[in-house]
Specification:
The complex is a heterodimer. Chain A is of the alpha/beta class. Chain A has helices at 26-34, 66-71, 74-90, 113-124, 137-141, 145-154, 169-182, 201-209, 247-252, 278-292, 310-323, 336-339, 346-355, 357-360, and strands spanning 11-19, 40-45, 49-54, 102-108, 160-164, 188-195, 235-236, 238-246, 259-268, 301-303, 331-333, 362-363, 387-388, 394-401, 405-412. In chain A, helix 11 (310-323) links the parallel strand 10 (301-303) and strand 11. In chain A, helix 3 (74-90) crosses helix 6, helix 7 (169-182) crosses helix 13 and helix 10 packs across helix 11 (310-323). The radius of gyration of chain A is 20 Å and the shape is globular. Chain B is built from 4 helices and no strands. Chain B is mostly helical. The two termini of chain B are 14 Å apart. Classes of the chains: A alpha/beta, B mainly alpha.
Chain lengths: 414, 88
Amino acid sequence: MIAAGGDHDRIVITGIGLTAPNGNDLNEFRENLLACRSGVSRYEIRYVGETVAGVCNFDEFRYQKKKDVRRGTRAGSVAIYSAQEAVAAAGLDWPNIDKTRVGIYVGVTEHGNVETENEIFELKGFDYDTKFWSHHHNPRTVANNPAGEISLNLGVTGPHYTIGAACAAGNAGIIQGAQMLRLGECDVALAGGVSESVRTFGIFASFKSQGALASHADPTKASRPFDMDRTGIVVAEGGCMFVLERMADARARGAKIFGEVAGYAMNSDAHDFVLPYADRQAECVEAALRRARIRPEQIDIVSTHATGTGAGDAQECAALRRVFADSPTTYFNNAKSYLGHAMGAAGALELAGNLLAFEDRVCHPTINVDRLDPECALDGLVLNQPRELGRVDYILNNSFGMLGINSVVIVKRV
Amino acid sequence: MSPAEIKEVILDILGDIAPDEDLSELKDDVPLREQLELDSMDFLDIVMELRKRYRVQIPEDDYMELASMQSTVRYLEPLMRDIAPAKP
């Protein structure tokens, strides 16, 4: 039970740093979500050709030298930018923080595909002679790379690693950070998720082969969860890192608190490689509610995972219909309709996009729903324009992934 | 390639692998590592770029020859004498 202990066991969010296809800081991101501005654009990638994607335009050199960008990975740059922005937003006295007591926990859907594809592409020009294979390949493709790049950049000497959790990874990073704080393994957790997936043709090609890659003449309308005319997933990149601290520490230094991680859960479908499973998703949501010691009707906003595939959207709505059957003041939205699917960053970004609702009491909508799929017609679905709510005390964030991995995080207003 | 042309090649490679550095004041007879922020991975980049661009193979035992610009050019001169400079 997360909320059972005193302030020492309560984990709060004190900093948020992010880059999304429609915003490079929390306020810009929130403003664009409320203004219904998509970040999806036309995109071209080798072998696949013209498609659409959610691409970020943050300044890579704000926190990195040119040499470090060249040597590292895009995921590393996304992670560093997000982590640095989060630390700055948290108002931590960074030079005097004990870096041995900082932990870095970064959710990733995958890592290494981009770098491996690039290297093989390069090697083709040398007739596949491996003596032209780069010595940078291994440090770029080790699974801990994005977290490790943060540790190098910020001088963090506490633990760092990634959590490979498919598209449930953003939430998984937050959960790991909260758990490590409660275990006393660190005093500050930099936790969240990152994605560089728009740079691997393999992800686009695989979704295309699966019949699950979105297309639309207008890129901003390509990502359309819950809509009858959806055509699949829009691949996106991005990152979102949170500074997590114990409530007692945050209060002691007078930090601004964005919310408390009141509950969470992860479980597995044990059902299918790619198809989601409503029963297990519902169980995961229910487990998170139990841990937060609240009833479903106390949730004000559910940030859905829905990606714009028929099966995925319908299964999640079935799960939510089951859990929130008697929750007339629970509202549902979806940020992928603006961003595309930011993979390992998705869960963290989508949560961040909702957190300011604690202050402005507005639920951003799901955009691009012109013909609502009857299977997704949840009561309380906020469509195409923001909805003002009387108050927002609890936000529940869903994030699910392939191989049947489910993660749910509940954040409470403090 | 003449020694001057080889030096241009090395400066071009250094420009790629150390893009934050000012190479205009580089002294030929002082070790590169004393003038630039270079580590072992960067020296491997020099070796790799020479291999990729000019098919020049540098055995590991000879890596120490790349310590300064002067020693690098001296070492590469017989290996690159018959290689035409890349067209601009």
